[in-house]
Write a structure and sequence with these properties.
CATH topology: Alpha-Beta Plaits
CATH superfamily: DOPA-like domains
Helix content: 25-40%
Number of strands: 5
CATH class: Alpha Beta
Number of domains: 1
Distance between the termini: 23 Å
CATH architecture: 2-Layer Sandwich
Strand order of the largest sheet: 2-3-1-4-5
Radius of gyration: 13 Å
Strand content: 25-35%
Number of helices: 3
Length: 117
């Protein structure tokens, strides 16, 4: 498992959940957005993109990185969170620039094949 390190100007954190942990995940994302300069995206109740589980995205920058990551790690309970830098290369962002809070999961990287990834 690779723990997140602040190396990029901007980040996404994808909080993974299922039907039993939906409320917990939504609460975590809302609290993160309320307490830090992070923007919460939609709560997807189905796998989307490379994400094999239901997920909610949080967007934040390198200035907020340390506080957001510490909060997510302390408050995530049993949820798994993918954290990755935003470099403009989606494939690299979800592989080389990816780190985890919790157990890593295999992403659906085939979706990047059509974009040259």
């Amino acid at each position: 498992m690779t723990y997140p390190i602040n190396r990029y100007p901007a980040y996404h954190a994808h909080v993974y959940f299922d039907a039993q942990t939906l409320s917990e995940a939504r609460d975590l994302c809302e609290r993160t957005q309320d307490h830090f300069p992070a923007k919460m995206g939609r709560v997807h109740e189905r796998p989307i993109g490379p994400h094999p589980f239901w997920s909610c995205q949080l967007s934040f920058d390198s200035d907020a990185f340390a506080d957001v990551i510490a909060f997510l790690d302390a408050e995530r309970g049993g949820l798994t969170i993918l954290v990755h830098g935003l470099t403009g290369d989606d494939f690299a962002d979800h592989t080389d620039h990816a780190a985890w809070l919790g157990a890593p999961v295999e992403l659906n990287l085939k979706i990047f094949e059509t974009s040259g990834g």
